[in-house]
Specification:
mainly beta, single chain, four-stranded antiparallel β-sheet, about 120 residues, about 0% helix
Amino acid sequence: MDKKKVAVPLVCHGHSRPVVDLFYSPITPDGFFLISASKDSSPMLRNGETGDWIGTFEGHKGAVWSCCLDTNALLAASGSADFSAKLWDALTGDELQSFEHKHIVRACAFSEVCS
């Protein structure tokens, strides 16, 4: 008899819903960092080596599908089901800009020119 394969969602301590995207920064003078996107609407920044929580970016009203950090890990970006992409100050957690879209934002990235 064949066993049925079951997909298990990726979870991360601190998130209340499954994690859908992870992004590691390049190595910076302060180490490297991890940002996680989750269906709970709150991207989280962590120490890339230890996984220790650094902060949460609060402001989205829907699942966050994508997140990333610039090459210096000073800026963060996130894309959400609330039809917005947001730019964040990774040091303070402040929202710097919100970009409204006509549909769910499922991807975000920094160009090499901006980094």
